[in-house]
Amino acid sequence: MLRDHKHFEKYCEPRVVSIGPIHHGKPKYRLAEEYKLTLAENFIEESGKTDKELYMVIKNKIEQLRECFDEEVIHNYNDEALAWMLFVDGCATLKFIDSVVEKKVKEFQIKNGQVAFVQQDLFLLENQLPYRILDDLIKNSKEGKKLKESVQSFIDTQSMTKKTEEPPPNKEPVHLLDLLRNRLLGCTHDLSPKSNEKEWQSYRNVQELIAVGIHLKSSNS
User: Fold this and answer.
1) In whole angstroms, how far apart are CA 52 and each of 8, 48, 120?
2) What is the pTM of this model?
3) How many angstroms separate the CA atoms of 167 and 173, rounded?
């Protein structure tokens, strides 16, 4: 149903960066691939592990990870190519999230406008990584505790709802979008024991809001 919408590409395809196999390799995301390699390299340096050690964390589970995708999406990728893609994307995603939370994105020369678009892209349905990839990379990094807290803070900033005291369900989220969905519904998969409430951020401009039926007026202040 979504694909039949005349604005499908505008609302459903990534604007800046491709994560995972569905949109991988498209020319419009070529520049982002360079940024991903830089982010991934930095993640590896801070992890206390070698690139081979972290890569093998993903490679050793590639059969299970293949089952997370429709065969039509991944049939052109052998195990090595798919594992490498998921490895780079996982490392880059976690480093980007941590950099946003720590307000250090400018160290990678990523402009504010691009940061906003990347944050939107990370929550598109066709732009998701299996959450077990992120979780395994976090567990194998010496920065694991900090990374867990960063992911939780990042999810909190995307939500306009107050966090509930309801205990989280005892199951792993499917991907980042699922983690956000649980947060919005009040079933928070709390990754850190002391996550603080953050102010919700929206990066939609007025024209986009009006286009989907949200009307605004200026306040007196």
Assistant:
1) 39, 12, 30
2) 0.81
3) 14
